[in-house]
Design goal:
- The protein is an all-alpha fold.
- Helix content is 51%, strand content 0%.
- The protein contains 3 helices and no strands.
- The longest helix has 21 residues, at 60-80.
């Protein structure tokens, strides 16, 4: 049996806006920006939408809030849909 482990620890798939944020964060971090004020400014320049759907500019506190909301949602989904941990049978 073929099993995909790419997203094995997620209890749900990422939303389109969460995926866009994740991709943007990878690019920003790869560019050497790691401080939340730098990262949020880069997100603003890249016009990355806020996954919560809220309007307004990115800031360090907004980034922290957005990440907190995503993490809580993923934790909840994981609790409701734990990954398979038994032996896979063909």
């Amino acid at each position: 049996m073929h099993v995909s482990y790419e997203k094995q620890s997620l209890g749900r798939v990422l939303s389109e806006t969460e995926e866009r944020l994740a991709i943007a964060l990878e690019r920003i971090f790869a560019g050497g920006q790691h401080q939340f004020d730098e990262v949020s400014a880069a997100l603003q320049r890249l016009n990355v939408p806020r996954p919560s759907g809220a309007a307004g500019a990115w800031s360090a506190s907004v980034l922290e809030d957005e990440l907190r909301l995503i993490n809580a949602s993923l934790d909840d989904a994981y609790a409701r849909n734990p990954p398979f941990t038994g032996d896979a049978q063909s």
